[in-house]
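Q: What does the predicted 3D structure of POT family proton-dependent oligopeptide transporter look like?
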Amino acid sequence: MASSLTKDTVRPGTPGSGKTFFGHPRGLATLFMTEMWERFSYYGMRALLPLYLVAPGGLHLSAATATAIYSVYLSLVYLLALPGGWFADRVLGPRRTVAVAGAIIMLGHLTLALPNAGTFYAGLGLVAIGSGLLKANISTMVGHLYDGPDDPRRDGGFTLFYIGINLGAFAAPLIIGTIGENVNWHLGFALAALGMGLGLTQFLLGGRHLSARSDIVPTPLSAQEKAATLRKAAFWAAVAIVFYAVVGVSGVYTLNWLLVPITVAGLVIPVLVIARMKRDKELDRAEQSKLTAYVWFFVAAAVFWMIYDQGGSTLSLFAESSAKNSVLGWDFPVSWYQSVNPVLIMALAPLFAWAWLALARRGKEPSTATKFAMGLVLVGASFFLFLAPLAIAEGGHKAAALWLAAIYFVQTVGELTLSPVGLSVTTKMAPAKYASQMMGVWFLAVTAGDATTGLLSIAGVDLNKTGIVALEAVLAVLAGAAVWMYRKKVKELMGDVH
């Protein structure tokens, strides 16, 4: 990460010339603060969500239903990142899309803050839509601040931006979680709205420091395309309204009528997107080979996120019912567990970056496939570790908080071996034709993983039982072993990508 003084200057004519933010364009400060507050609102609400869903003072649902809703919500956020990128590319441009996204997210959190069960799901939907629009575009705007991929400040800028994400994620459960659990659930959701409001204000006030490229619509829709898109959108919206009106009037509507279609879409759409790319005859042999290799990474990532994202649902609900949430006699809210991962990320990420560089200098850095295998084995190991507190709880005792902290630690180490590498290899292996879409494809791996968890929960599977936890752990370890065994084949398929 760049650490030069803020008074340093950059080359004349580059974005953000003049005063800088730790040696980076001033626009990075705007995007840093916007993303920090947006992540504050997102992770704060997310920490409260499963707890509110099962609480007697909340919606008082079963743990399985709460896990299904949580998983479907996460699945939807990452699924909508794909159309979010398309919307910026074809309609509004990144900057205006992010501004609209911030307003939608804030409105969603305000809707969640209303003490009405009927509006709660509408609020979740708004937050998911806004998050999908924002997630796909704010990172693109960070890239716009630099002179292309060869700008020496670029990696440091993204590192600073990543710190902003984790600062927001760390603080959110401590503040929003405490207020939501100990004072009032809806006041907690209102605080999430305030956080997004602060981020949106920062974005609008600091917009003059952003690159002019962020205002450009790269491939705007023609008048005919706009008309056709609006007709299709109106048709499918009308179909959905009529369908759910009929289901509602007939008296057979349950929450599964909403959850199941979204879950199925979360599994089917990733398959269709990759299959469409594989069938594209315009791609040459080398690009097709890289796509085949990428399928290995995609499936591995889906298995990883299926288990990893249960840290906010399965583990959180276990902590609420079966853990001794105290350290040295000091009790703390269950939502605070969600701050463990971001603080560990901030502590361990520099160590991992240093370790990979040190190994690379000696010619011993593990391959991408090996790193993926390590991530899968570690996330599987975290669920093998989960078996211990499950056994303690089944014996009629409360499990110590350190058991859960240890599980989050192992998962975080696994994340650091897989997630940054996955982002990098996605950009490197993308066919030229799909360069701007491939990051959305990477997010679809999260969608597929969370959709699988949602489907299991909808089917009534109790994910806090020893048998299913052990089965998931074995699946992850076997998947890691398979990636490692076929690492040489995958490396061959990757061609010139290292």
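A (community wiki): The structure tokens above were generated from the sequence. The radius of gyration is 22 Å. Residues 19-220 form a domain with the Growth Hormone; Chain: A; fold (CATH 1.20.1250.20).
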